[in-house]
Amino acid sequence: xxxxxxxxxxxxxxxxxxxxxxxxxxxxxxxxxxxxxxxxxxxxxxxxxxxxxxxxxxxxxxxxxxxxxxxxxxxxxxxxxxxxxxxxx
Length: 89
Known about the structure:
little secondary structure; 1 helix
């Protein structure tokens, strides 16, 4: 797949690929840090775990949704409707 504004692959990254099972596939590094991470509900498949202190946190380790090139449009539409809290409405 060609690098563009909607796709970028950094095979030189020391963490590449950062998700198991994505080897050999088009891997989109554009959303290296998922823009939906701060949202409780997202398009991916996060787990919610309880820390030793009893706090519930979102664990996106097993989610590869933002790294699939074909998900770019869905992510952008989702963010328009559900902006992260750091973006003023």
